[in-house]
Amino acid sequence: MIPLQKDNQEEGVCPICQESLKEAVSTNCGHLFCRVCLTQHVEKASASGVFCCPLCRKPCSEEVLGTGYICPNHQKRVCRFCEESRLLLCVECLVSPEHMSHHELTIENALSHYKERLNRRSRKLRKDIAELQRLKAQQEKKLQALQQWLGQLEHMPAEAARILDISRAVTQLRSLVIDLERMAKELDTNTLKNAGDLLNRSAPQKLEVIYPQLKKGVSELLLQPPQKL
Q: Could you tell me which residues come within 8 angstroms of residue 30 by beta carbon, excluding any fewer than 6 positions away?
């Protein structure tokens, strides 16, 4: 185990992970740690029933983790994340009837799990955006060819509308990608519930109103033989 560095406090470095402080929290004795690092330390220390500062070993209160890390119902440190209810649970919540049949993850595993899901979803949407842009370019090329034959753009409202629909879909997907990547970067215990909501909002079945039917329609159009004008 790497020894904790006391002099790193002045440099903004977490004594536990030895990296720059992220969402820094202070213990009762004034030492700073990453919130996630200190949460993991508290979880390991809970077996002994005594929570001490990892640096100076002075007794501390779990409340230093912040209100979001303390169960509002039982005033105990949260230790699990319920995927069904999307709530942070303490040990007393875990044995309550409403959660006994639910699937819970440790906070550390939940953070890792949801960060990977957020990143995977953003990669998927980036591929969809690239595909839509390719279809848009092909549709624009076809529209340009039709315009040369017919001379006026208003004679081709259907083709122009498809291009506009694709542009709108790309804009909405880009917005989702920004939200997904920001959430993955800033994910912590307090935002786990929001991560689940964002994954729900960006699920393929929820996006059907944005682009899958559109992609199918445009793809079928592109497979059609050129019209004889």
A: none
Residue numbers of the chain with a pLDDT score lower than 70: 1-11, 46-49, 66-68, 147, 149-156, 210-229
pLDDT tens readout for residues 25-46: 888 888 888 887 887 787 777 6
Going from the N-terminus, what domains does the chain have, and what CATH number goes with each? 13-67 (3.30.40.10)
Strand partners, 59: 52
CA atoms within a 13 Å half-sphere pointing along the CA-CB vector of 70: 11
Residues sharing a CB contact under 8 Å with residue 182, sequence separation 6 or more, in sequence order: none
∠157-158-161 over CA atoms, to 5°?
80
How many CA atoms lie within 13 Å of 153's alpha carbon, on the beta-carbon side? 5
Nearest to 169 by CA among 134, 132, 142, 204: 132
Give CA–CA dist 55/27, Å, rounded: 10
